[in-house]
Amino acid sequence: MYLDESLSGSDSSESEDENDDTSRRESTLTTLLKKQATLADKRNGANADEDEEDSFSKRKRKGGGKAPLLWFNSPLLPPNHYFGLYRTILSSEETKNDVDLVEVIRKKQLQPLPPPKASSNGSLQPALHKGPHFFLCMIGGGHFAAMVVSLAPRSTKHGTTGPLNREATVLAHKTFHRYTTRRKQGGSQSANDNAKGNAHSAGSSIRRYNEQALTDEVRLLLKDWKTLLDTSELLFIRATGVTNRRTLFGPYEDQVLQSNDPRIRGFPFSTRRATQNELMRSFIELTRLKVQEINPAVADKPQQETSAKTAPKPAKPAPPKLSEEEETALLHTSQLQAFIRRSKLPAMLSYLKTNDLPADFRFHPADTQQNHHSPTPLHLSANQNSAALVAGLLAKGGADPTLPNGEGKTAFELAGDRATRDAFRVARAELGETRWDWDAARVPPPLARAEAEKRDAREKEEEEKKEAERRRAEELRLQSQGPKVPDAHGQGRGRGRGLVEGVPKSAQEKREEEARGLTPEQRMKLDRERRARAAEERLRRMQAGG
């Protein structure tokens, strides 16, 4: 089977199709990789027999797949230094015969040409440029950028060429941007509609409109550039996603780009957001000759060493299988911790009774950080500052408050607020001193429930009084900060002030005076009261008139 006719790995021999058609369809990727590996081995053997009289001779990297770069050596370079060229800028016809690659590259070295004159809108007329050129296009995330760049460098006034980004002649360029991506969630609106159905919001409607508008703008631009696209040597396109590819490749009426066009290439390196600067950077990266140092000792290692390095790593050993007792302990742990986090005291007590579990059940596994810090339901309840759970476990569940955790702390020492600590003191008073060694549990002296409730009520009443005093002081402050009307002589007091105050005020002035110094919330409340009084007055008049 000859593979020279299928360098890209996209064709197959007739014998393979006839003998194993089903297998080829099921594992296409495996077949292509095998063909590329066979081709690489064959070419490596052929290159070893070639004469090295030429000033340039091609150097290929060893490996199963085709590398994106072609490497050449030259006497102009230091030892172990090589020229690199992207394989993708060569057509399939040019890469059929590796021996002629150097001659093909020499022919691509074009002489500088004067740039064609631009039209009034900034783009070049297609008929004014007949030289070779590339078409570059990126679309994604609502961003679109396209550019047609001449391959012939621009000639300067002094006959020299400048930096490559200034030397390139842009025949046409255009960028579009539309809001089509869902904020914070990602993905296009059309993809979300296909997955979950059409959303009925203002943002989704705007995104759908912008997607269609972007599609229309891109297709109209491609139609205007049809002459430039038809004469382009290669078409470099980055369009990920079904929606973006449908925008470029249709099908639609008067379609310009065809997905099966042999000139279409992808960018063999990472690219960023679709902008004009990114397209120019990509063009420079594609057409610039690379120089790199390659160590022959590393590059010429045997194929078996490469295969050994690329061999898949052994799978991690599976975790040991748990016993039935361990699985049951894990189940009880997850259920009890869920009840505690949601403060479900009746459900937790019922679960303990139904499964015949003690109130001091030890969570499993004990070596985790959480279970080391809170090994029992009482520890976890105190750590969660749940006074109700602590009281229920001590009074109804019979939990032992003297048990320490992995750090030597009792449940009382994990309580973070006074209400939870009071629950321990109330339980000490109600259960009695003989029930547990409360001193070993680090629980302070007992506290009667009535005394605790009385103290809470007293503190609540004091807080309400403080809040009432604060509101009263705020009202007095607002009243005292009302505006003062000066008299006719500029004095704050005197006979003139009485004359001014005697002038009757309009209803609008009264409303404005009442609203002075009020916060927006107070003004809204005042407006509601006015409207309510007005409605009551209208209702009273209607009843009186009836």
From TrEMBL:
GO terms for cellular component: cytoplasm. InterPro entries: Ankyrin_rpt (IPR002110), Ankyrin_rpt-contain_sf (IPR036770), ANKZ1/VMS1 (IPR047139), VLRF1/Vms1 (IPR041175). One of its GO terms (molecular function) is endonuclease activity. Residues 450-477, 507-540 have a biased composition (Basic and acidic residues). GO terms for biological process: ERAD pathway. Keywords: ANK repeat, Coiled coil, Cytoplasm, Endonuclease, Hydrolase, Nuclease, Repeat. Its main location: cytoplasm. Belongs to the ANKZF1/VMS1 family. This is VLRF1 domain-containing protein.
